[in-house]
Structure formats: C-alpha cells, structure tokens
Amino acid sequence: MSDDTFVVHTEEAELPPEPPPHGPMVWARTNLFSSVTNTILSVVFGGITLLFFWNMVGFIIGEDRRWDAVTANMRLLMVQAYPQEQSVRIWLSLAIILVLAMATLAVWGAGTRLSRYAVGTTLMTAGAFLSFLSLIATLHLVLDSRTAVWGLGGLVVGLVLAGVGYQMRQGEESKVPQIPSLMVTAVALAVPIAAFWVIQVPTPILGGGQELAPVALSTKLPLTILYLIAVVSYLVADRTIGEQERFRGPLVALWVLSFPVIVMVILRDPIIPYDLVTSTYLPIGAAFAIVGAVVMWFVADPTKKEAGLGVGALIFVLFLLSWAISVVMVVRILLLMGALFALSAPTFAGEQRARLRYAGVWFVSVVLVTYFVVLVVAESSIRSESGSFLGGLMLTFPLAIAGMALSFPLGVLLALGRTSTMPIFRLLSTAYIEVVRGVPLITWLLVAFVLLPFFLPPGVGIQGVVRAIFAVAFFSAAYLAENIRGGLQSIGKGQYEAAKALGMTTVQMTVFITLPQALRAVIPALVGQVIALFKDTSLVTIVGLFDFLHIARAVIPNQSQPFNFIGVLREPLLFAALVYWIITFSMSRASLRLERKLGLGER
Amino acid sequence: MLKWVAQLAFLAFLIAVVVIVGRVVASNLSNRGINFGWQWLSDPPGFSIREGIDTTPDSGARALLVGIVNMLRVTVAGIIFATIIGTVIGIARLSNNWIVNKIGTAYIETIRNIPLLVQIFFWQALMLSLKTFGEEDVGSYFTHSSVKGIALPGIFPSDGFWQWMVFVVIGLVAARYVFRWRSRLMEETGNESYALTSAIGTVLVFAALGWFLHPLFGWMSAIWGALEGLARGIPAPLYSWAIALAIVAGAAWWIRGFFEARKTPAGYGKFTDDDIFRVAFAALSGLVIAGFVIWLSSRVVQVPSGGSLEGDVTIAELIRLGAGNFWNFFENKFHGSAGSPFAFELPSIELRGAGFAQYGSESIVITVPFFAVFVGVTVYTAAFIAEVVRAGILAVPRGQTEAASAIGLKRSQYLRLIILPQAFRIILPPMGNQYLNLAKNTSLGTAVAYAEVVAVGFTLSNQTGQSLPIVLTWMVFYLTVSLSISAVVNYYNRKLALVER
Amino acid sequence: MKFQRFAAMLAVLALIAAACGGTADDTTPPDDSSVTTTAAPVDAGQTDGESTLDVVKNRGTLRCGVSGSAVAFSETQPDGSVTGFDADFCRALAAAVLGDANAIEFRALTAQERFDALSSGEIDVLMRNTTWTQSRDTEVGMDFAPTTYYDGQQLMGRSEQFSASSTLADVDGAILCTNAGTTTEKNITEGAQVAGATIQLETVETFPEAMEKFKAGTCDLVTTDGSGLVGNKATAVRDGEITEDEWVIFPTAPISKEPLGPVYRQNDSTWADVVNWTVYATIIADEKGITQANVEEMMEVDPEAARLFGGEGELQTAMGLDAEAFLNVIKQVGSYTDIYNRNLNPVGLFREGSFNAPFNQGGLIYAPPAR
C-alpha cells in the first residue's frame, strides 16, 4: 500500500570510489576479502546468492513450466478485450505519448553525459550477469539432457557484452564524460527490440503441448516502428535548442490534453451525435463561453473588489437550482465551473491584459469542457464483448493516471484545509485525512463496490472502473495532503510576511507564493506517491476488476478452451511481478534523476 | 466574519448532503427489504475458521474477535521481524563488503518495486511447492515443514507462569532504578558504568530467582479474590459513570495543558477564534462522548443462556461481569501449588478423526496463509525500514563521530552512546509510519484466505448481508489500531525530542 | 516561429483525434432523455414503467452479467472474448431480442456485486451461476428464469481415503478447502456439524486457488458445486496429472441443491417472458431433436417447431419480438444440447444420467409446450 510516502533516496551519497587501476584480484581483495570477517561474509552470502540463482533459473526454465500460458494471453494481459482489428488505435496512442515524452526530454534538456568508463562498467556488469545466468541455465539444461543452444547463445552474448565493456574502460581519456546518456538508453532499448526479431517464445499448440515459435509480427513490427518514432521525434525536437523555454508551457498543456483525448477519442472512438451537437451543445457552449467571458472580464477588475464573490455566489445558487429542473447535464457543470471562476476572480484580478487573459482562459475551458461532455455522452463504436474497452495493463495505467489526476487537487485542498486557521475547515480536513489514512485501501475499495449501491438513487449505477478510480483517488488524496502539508510547513515565515507586506490577500498569497514553493519542495514525495498508487491499483483484483493482476491470477488459470491453462498460476504471477517491477523501477529511477536535476535536498 | 460565514455555510452544505444521502439510503434499504442492525453479532455465523483462538465461533462477534486476534498476531510478529530484517539490511547497505552491499541493494530495489499483493501470492505459491505428508509420517519431530504448514517447537505458559511473572514485574521495576542509578553514576564520574547491561542483568536475576521461588506467591490468590468480590459488589451503573468521568477528566486535562502551554510571564495574550474553538470543541466532545458512554451502558442486550448472566442485561452489567472475570482469572491462576512456569512441546503429526494425518493440536503451526501474509508484509516492510535506518545513520553528522573518537571513545562505545541514540531520534517517526502501513497491509491476507478481520468480516457480510455494520466495525477497528500505534510513536517522539533552547 | 511548430503539433493531435472520432452518419443519436439525465460516468437504468426489452432494443446491445472466470460457464479467452455455458445463454438472448448473437456486452461481476449491478440497471440480465433461493427470489428484488443447470455441492477427496459411497461423517478431522461463495461455506459447515464431524475450513477466494491447495496437499478435500469438481477432475485426467480413479467425488446425492439460471429484475413481466421463453426455446428444440444444423428442415416437418421458430410467429410478435426470434437463437447459438455439449463436454460434464438430462430420460430439463 502507500509505503512510498517515506522514501529516502540517498543514492548519490555513495559516489563511485576512484577505482584503482589494477586487475580483478586487487578489486576482490579490497572489496571481498579485506578481513577475516569480510571473507566469511563473502563466502556465506556468495553461496546463498549462488543457490538462489540456481533455483530461480532452474524454476524458470523447468521443463513443465507453462510459459505458453503467458505468451498466448499476452494480448489479454495488455489490453484485455480490446478488439483486435482496432489495435492500431492502441499503437497510435502509444505513439502520441512517446512523441510527447521525447519532446519533453528534448525541451527540458534531460539527460547528462557519461564517460566511456562508466558506460563500460555498466556494460561489463550487465554482460557478466547475463553470462552468469546463462551459465546456470546451460548447466540446468545439460543436466536435464535438453538442448542447451539458447543457454549457450546467452552465454556468448553475455561474454561479448562484457568484453566490449572491458574494452571501453581502457584508456586515459575514457573518464571524460562525453557520451550522451539518452543515446546510451536508446542503444540499450534497441537490444530488446532487435531481440524480438530473433528470439523464439514458447507457444501453445492446439490439442496440447507447446513449441518454440517466433514472436508474432503483429507484436514486433509495431514495437519496432514505435521505437523508430521515438528516436526520430527526439532528434526533431532536439533541434529547438536555445528556444526550449517557449515550448514548455504548450508541452505541459499537450500532456494534460493528451490523456482525455487518448482515452475518450482514440481508444473509445465516440460516435458523435452531430445533430445533437448543433441543436444543443454548440448553442449552450457558445452562450456560456461568450456571456461568461464578458462576466469574467467584468469581475476580474481589481477596482470591483469583491464583486466576484457576489457573482460567484449568485451563479452557485443558479447551479443548485438547476437540479430542481430537467436540464442538460452540461449546463450544471458549466454553472459550477462559472461559480468557481467568479469566486477566484479577485485573486487573478489585474490590468487590462490580466483581465483579458482571465476571460480567455474561461473561454477555452468552456470549449474544452463542452467538447469532453460531448465525448462522454457520445456512444463508443468500440464493441468489445466485455463491455469495457479498458482492461489488463490498459486498465492499470488509466486507473493510476486518473486516480492521481483526481487526487491531486483534492490533496492540495485538504493540505490547505489542514494548515488553515479556519477551525471548521481544519477539523474536517484533519478528520478526513486521519480516517482515510487509518483504514486500509482494500476496505475503501470494498466500500466502493459493496456499499456504494445503497448510497445511490435507484436506477443509477456507476461502472466498476469509475468506482475504483474514485476509491483510489480519495485514498491517495489523504496521503498527498500530508506530503503537501510538509511542504507548506517548510516555507519560511519571511515568505508570508513579504506577501502580506505587498498587500496580497490570503488566497493570492497561497496561490502565487506559498503553494508553488511547497509543491516544488515535495516533488520527490509526490513521485513516491505516484509509484505507491500505481502499485495500489493491483488491489482492484480483489473486487474483481479485470486489471493486469486479475487476468494473471484469476482469468488465465480458468481457461479451458482453446488451450487448457487450468491451474496455471505461477507463471502468469511471476510475469506480472516482472512487469510491475520494470515499470515501478523505471519510475523510481526517473524520480531520482528528477530530484537530482531539481537540486532538491541540497541547500 | 466572512470566514465564519463561509465555514458555517460549508458545514450546512455538508450536513444537507449527509441528510439527503441518508434518506436515499433509507429508501434504498426499504425498497430492497434489507434491515441493517447488530443482531448478527450474537447470531451463529454459520461458518468455521481455519485458524485462530476459536475455529468454530458460536457468534458473529466471536468470529470477528478471532479475525482481530489473527490480524494482531501477524501484525505484532511482522513488526518485530521487519524491524530486525530491515535494520540488518539497512546496515548491510552501508557495508564495505561488495557482496553484502549488493545483496542489500538488490533486496530493496526488488522488493520495493513489486506490489505487495503479488508478493503475497508468490509466497503462497512457494509454500505450496513443499511436500505433503500422510499416515506413514505420524510421530514427533523437532521441526517439520510441509505443504500444510511449518510446525515449530513451542514454549507454553504453564501452571506457575503467573506467579513467576510477579518476579519478572518486580525485576522490571528494580531494573528501572538500577538503570537510573548507573546512568547518574556515569554522568557524575564520567566513567563507563554499563547502565543497560546492569538493568538487563537485574531482570535476569529476578527471573532466575523466580524460577525456583515462584510458589511463594500463591497467597496472592486471596488478594485477587478480594478484588473480584469488590468488582462484583460495586453497583453496575458506577462503572459507566467512572468511565464517563475519566473521559471528562481527560478533556479537562487537555484543556488545562492547552492553557498551560499558552502561559507566558506576560499572561495569556489574546485568544484567537481558533483557540476558543479548540477549547470549546475539546470540552464539548468530552461531554458528548461521556454522555454517549452513559447512554450506551444503560442499553439492554440479549445474552444467550449458559453464562452467569442470562436474558436481558444492560451493557453496564456486562462491563461489571468482565471486571469480575478479570480478577477471577488471576485468582484461579494463583491457586494451589504451582508447577514450572513453562512447558515445552515438540511438534507432532497425529491421525485425527476419520484418519487424516494432521499436525498435533499442541504443535505451533505456521499455516500457509499465515506464512504468505507474514512473510509478505515482513519482507516488504523491511525494505522500507532498511531505507529508513540507512538514512537515519547517514544523517548523523560526521563531526559527531570525529568528536567521539577525539575524546577517546572506542568504536563500540561511540556507536552505542553517540551514533545510535541520535540516529534513533531521526528514524522513529518514519518507522512509526512503516509500522502503521504494515498493520494495514495485513488486510491483504484476505486474498490468500488468511482469516484476519477483513476476511472474516467479508464472509460474515456474505452470509448475513449486513455489509454496512461490518464495514463500520472494520473502520472502528483499524482506526483504533492506527491511532494506538501513532500514539505510542508520538509519545516516544516527544520523549526523545531535543530540548530546544 | 518556433511557436508555429508547436501549433503544428497541436493541429496534428487534433487531426488524429478527429480522424479517430467516428461520424454519426450511419448511427442514430442517443435518445434525448438519456442525455439529459445521464451524468458523466453513469449508466442510465430504465426509467419507471419502461420494460428492459425496450431499453435493450433501443440500445442495440444486451448487457449480460457473467463471472468471466468460471471454468466452462464463462471464461475469458486469450483474445478477450467470453465463452461458456452462461455466456452462450447470453448470446441466445441477444439473438432472440436483437437478431444478432454478438450484439452483446458482457460484464464480469463478483459474487458480491452481481445483484446490485442488476438492480441498478447496469446489466439487463444476470447469468452468473446464481442459485435460485427463497430469500433471493423474495427479499433481494430479483426474479428467476427457469433453471438452465441443476447443480449441487459435493466434495472431492483422494481415493486412499474416500470412495464414492463416503459421507460427510468420513471427513472428521480433515482440512477442507472451498472458494468464498455465498452458500458453500455455510452448507459444508452446517452439514459437517449435523454429521458430527469436526473440520477445518480454509476459504480461498477463487476456485483455482482451492484446487491448487488440494493438489499440493494443503487440503485433504475440496468442496464446491459438483460441476466445478467434475470439470477440474476431468482436465487433470486429460492432462495426465492423475489417473481416472485417483480422486473421488462424493456423496452421490449432493449436500445441497443449486439450481442455476438467469436472473432479472422483479416486476418486469415483458422482459421475464422473453428471457424465460428463450430458455424454453432451446429446451423445446432439444426435445424435438432440433439442432443448429437441421432447424430449417425440422420446421417443415413439425408444426410446433414451425410455430416457435417462425412461420406464423404471431406468438413471438405478441411478446414484442421478431417472428424469427427463436429461429435466430437456434441458428446462431443452438439448442440446449448444442450449448451444453459445446461447453461442458470438454471439461467432462455429460448430460446422460445427470439431473440435466431431458425429462424423458430421467432428468429435470423440461419446458412447457409452445402453442
């Protein structure tokens, strides 16, 4: 569960010691056998490690392992019931995300330069590790008198890698950082991509048994193309050098937009009811956008003082009244949004330019909100048999992302509430945070799945995925709030006093001065929370959602046709563990980089 | 002014929402013909439980109690072992031995990045790959592991245990004084006085004495008997009034502390709205809770026949019964001639019922679900604790070490006297967080059929349909556990905090 | 200038979005009422007085609640499709109402949420191994269609300790595994109590986990509905894990009655008729020896078949269905035997001699006449 709330990253504390320019014997003597105790420790733990890998590799390549259950169900694990003929939509979504990610890397100037020596060391370690595993595998295969060709192949590849790494470490100039780290990553990623074209995977045969077969073209071709797209888009975006600043804002906006667009438009493929749009949504949206823009322009006038509050209250009353009559949902949403905009107008009040900008933001927001309401109302043309177009890993990710997106604003509000001087707000926030944090997530999930129906008016149901998102989000918000509170409390008193001296209101001070600093200070904790939330999404299997883990542990061992995988539980579970590990590990590495780049914790 | 309007408006809005939702719930329940209540607490649950203090509970409340005890069992064991493993791994990551260091790193990076649920499933699968046993394996073993669990030799409290405990308690009290005396001695003379060692030695001495002398305390039975008579003699309502009074006193104590903290030589200064609200809220909630206790304890409940109380009794009478039974327990334990304090049992495999080979009922058996949850949460939490410990040790400034060796302390001394106390202060709050997480994570046991409180509650709710009361019970229980753990951590935190000057 | 490049990127994203958004040219817009009352994540249930039949017809797909992970009853396949006995009855219903057995959305539900999913309107019909009991029929607000599968709880043990004639008294002292259901734990606990046997019950979440523990030897016995036991034993035999007589299933008369069938909301007799008669149609077809293959010919010969599967068909139109509704069922999905054999034979469940044999062969599968 949310254990990452207190992650301590002190990776950089141990700077790589200046390696002595001697051979492996000297290295072993200093690092393994420097004293009697050390020698005993080395022997004992070396033996344990060896035993561990011996058994692990033996298990993985065991003759009666059913890895074909994993390969045959790869589609199911990734996207569950998403129709196969539409899978181009998934690849397209991935491509968009990749392009954005690469542009982000380029524009933020991510990545450092590594020395040939450092790269060589990594390569040598990786190669040595690969040949170590391959050696064990080969021994196992030989002892079982099976063909050991793959094990030997791995051994050779590992030795070659180690050799190349060793060569790279040679020479004096090899310690000067000059190789871009992103290039290293790109080359490293090319290896698995290339491997897809070479390796053979266990595949089930109709009627029982399994055989080794090449990876399906429908898997390796799109992956290769994606890889190329990523490389090309990085190279293109990298040419903005010198003008990155201008791209940052738009890029963030694109990221924010991309997720609803991908999920609601690309993956869901809505059938937009154009006659309804022209008859209802277009006029409503236009009216709100134009009238509202004028209102916002009016209330964002500093001389009007608190007029915004009055207007906001008025709109809020209208919003409440709108529930008494039958009206299209979008009107209520826009009214609520209008109330919030008007209420916060005094905070953003300013000169002509600021007022115009405020009205402009309102206009764009109305357009976007109306557009997304249309998307939600429109029916999906993706006819998947399991009803939902999200499943497998493609459910796990949206769960985590949507959960985070929802929990963030709530967490900020709760943190502000808890540090507020207004006792009722503080009491309510504190109670919320402590109650939610005090009870395990699984209980909240059960509440959302077992109790929620009692709280809804008859005839209204909420889909399981949405329930899970809300449960995860409300849970995570309490943890986020505590993190952000830590940030708020770390801000010096001087900041508050300076803000007061400038004549800022409390809201202005919070929005422009304290909150941004607090958020920046707690970025590592927030990333830790994202990782925890990602891991927490695996709990939805207990309430029966078809997420990645659920398919691995409950669906695959229940398949009797066309292949019989009944009772095959350990292989999918191990695979699930590996996938979760890769994702979470990369996230935590990325957060480490980010932390170092922001220079946090070094004052 | 505006602030209060906004707050009250929000509160009114919230109450309105609660009222509306409440009406929806009521109408939904009546539409579906469901009546939520607490009758299931005393009704037979209709299922048996795999392990725990009572495998065939006769009431829902008892079934939940079994779940609670199971949860606490795995939590306490988990906290102890996670602390040990986590500390070892944390120190291993600081080791200069390459293999040890890398094992520590690999452990943390692997464990932390895989969801706990996946790991629990993995440990279960691992356990299921062990061998089973049959009739031919009947006999006694020192330890035995199989797919039915891991059987360990056990030490059980025996007849003389409670008399012996009197010695231990006396020893603990004595040790406290010894510790203070030795510490004072060290401060005065500046010489190493081995305060902790002497204190532990004192306890051991008393425990050893008690091993032979404990029958001496048989006479205490009379004291417990007298206390029992007293407890049963007090009118029942007095109990509820005493509890209520304690709550009010607690609130009053808090308010007194609040004023105390605000007191400066210049007087109390100006009280903000917020301060007044705090005091008023504390007073009000104290009174309301006390009132609730009195109201609740006058309620009448149905008690199944068979005990000393039958039929309709008030909750206050039940409390009195409990107090009487408490002293009665000790009275019985101290009765008569006492044997040795402990009994030692080896695990055995025996034939049961219609001829099934099972571990003997006297064996201590770690079942598969317990193993999966226990190892899962322990290994998982240990990874986080290791990071906490490492950070705590690294956070002690280098100068402390240098200063310590400059005044001539030995390595073991400065670790024990300088580094660890300071590291401990840094470690404690995050460690408390990890303990909390561990306690909550045991709820994942429900996924591998470990009969802890969520799993039992879930089955109960399936059987009775009483989902709402059961969820409420879960929440009250987990909040109690969470608040208790954080109370303990906060207490030590305050005790250890640096005195700011 | 650089900003233009960004604008171009935005435009590309918008274009992709637009290209992927389908057009409404060939579809009917959603009816206005659903739009006005539907909040973003909410599925509208039917409004008062409107039959589920109209809701399904308007929507164009049938939403059917299944388990999604129950061997042979509703399995999720590697390609994401749902197959099995329950799933096929969903398809039959879709074929009857919409004329297309694939106009269907399956909702995978857990045992706990299934009734709420039905009463909130998230699904139109529930086909998830649901036992017909008095309390569910009366209290929970459900109605039950005719039973499609007669099941009963049994136990499975190893042949060294048990024979087919073993009883509950013989499990004294054993460890039993079962899956968390709604009635399985209660049945076995109460049954053992009556028989005077002391048991230890390990309740795991899903049945594969219970089987895993049984195979490993953690549990001496495993108990659940007989169909699950037979299916698991048969696949183990087929895989060569065990020989035919290594595991025994007992007692012959199950310790509980578990009639499984479709469930729908109370007080909707139009929809109830449709569901009931879809089931009956498959049974009647079976009684007359009509299968997917020969339905067209049989209609020429048999007047009842002609009535039921088309021809005059006014009985179907009176129900609010097409005249050919049940013909579609048989042609696209099959008769009861077709459905049964296709899904349950591979896991070792056969109709002969079971409760699920036709009534004229000693079973309980029986349908009222179509006239």
Describe it:
The complex is a heterotrimer of chains A (603), B (501) and C (371). Chain A is built from 24 helices and seven strands. With 603 residues, chain A is mainly α. Chain A is globular and about 85 Å long. The model of chain A is unreliable at 1-15 (pLDDT under 50). Chain B has 501 residues and is mainly α. Chain B folds into two domains: 41-153 and 346-471, MetI-like fold (Orthogonal Bundle), CATH 1.10.3720.10; 161-342, no CATH class. Chain B is built from 15 helices and ten strands. Chain B has helices at residues 2-32, 60-92, 98-112, 116-127, 161-189, 195-213, 220-233, 236-262, 273-297, 315-333, 368-395, 398-406, 411-441, 453-464, 467-496; strands spanning 139-140, 144-146, 149-152, 154-157, 300-303, 311-314, 342-345, 348-352, 356-359, 364-366. In chain B, the strands form four sheets. Chain B has a three-stranded antiparallel sheet, with no helix packed on it. The radius of gyration of chain C is 24 Å and the shape is globular. Chain C has helices at 2-20, 32-37, 52-59, 85-98, 114-119, 134-138, 184-195, 207-216, 226-238, 269-287, 295-301, 303-308, 314-318, 325-332, 336-344, and strands at 42-44, 62-66, 69-70, 74-76, 82-83, 104-108, 125-126, 142-144, 149-151, 153-158, 175-179, 200-204, 221-225, 247-250, 258-260, 263-265. Chain C is an alpha/beta fold and 371 residues long. Chain C contains 15 helices and 16 strands. The interface between B and C is large, with 42 and 39 residues.
